[in-house]
Amino acid sequence: MNTATPIPAPPPFPAVRAHRPGLRSLLIMVRAETKMVARDTAGMVIPFGLPLLILLTSASSASQEVIMAGRTALDLFVLPLVAVMVLTMIGVLNMPSFLAYYRRAGILRRLAVTPVSPLMVLLAQVIVSFLHALLGIGLAAAVAALAFGMRPPIDLAAALGVLALITAAMYAVGMIVAALAPTPNSAVAIGLIGFLGLGATGGMFGSRDALPGPVAEIGAHLPFGAGMDALAAAWAGQSIEASSIISLVAAIVVGSVIAAVFFRWD
């Protein structure tokens, strides 16, 4: 009687490890986002041109008015205004329009089924827009220093910390716009309303003292007004009001939660 020789089981295939995109992939995305931002002429130029125009029209007289600690109105009012304006314009207006376009074009949906998560697109856009904002603020500061004798903040570390908080707060507000806007055009419209609303109540068009009391009080607790107050205090070397820091942190938390709940990848 013949006994069939058992056929040995084939060796198991080696486990295939899913490839996770790393730093190289992020740098490629950042380069692609940089090209997209550079092609948007209006979005590229306006965050440089408009704050610089406001600086040039105000700096001559403001640089002659000493307020405290050897710092002039240029240092304590105009420069904080310009910095907050740049961050608001890019965070609330520019960045959401790109994300809304990517969602409308189906780019985020396609990326969702690849190893490159849509979150990497978001991270790349944040990095590029942040560098864009730094260039705008740096250009304004350079012109103010070279042409009008702008002096740096007395408490530089506090000023940099406040700038980081303002950036995060404006991006959180911008993510609300990106989450709720159904189309790129609506993102621009909502972002523009948000930019003007925050600026009008925060002191972009003049001192908040000229506003009605309740409006001025609300503006002081919104990211634009709170950011200006905190940055001016750091520039003068004074203690920063806790209410300004709390307002900025609250904007970050509320904006992040709302964006996380309502943001759609497709």
UniProtKB/TrEMBL annotation:
Positions of transmembrane segments: 44-62, 74-102, 122-149, 156-181, 187-206, 242-263
Domain named ABC-2 type transporter transmembrane: residues: 26-231
Record keyword Membrane present: yes
UniProt xrefs under InterPro entries: ABC-2_transporter (IPR052902), ABC2_TM (IPR013525)
Subcellular location: Membrane
Keywords: Membrane, Transmembrane, Transmembrane helix
Gene Ontology MF annotations: ABC-type transporter activity
GO cellular component: membrane
Coiled coil: none
Topology in the lipid bilayer: Multi-pass membrane protein
Main localization (coarse): membrane
Name by which UniProt lists this protein: ABC transporter permease
Species name: Candidatus Brachybacterium merdavium
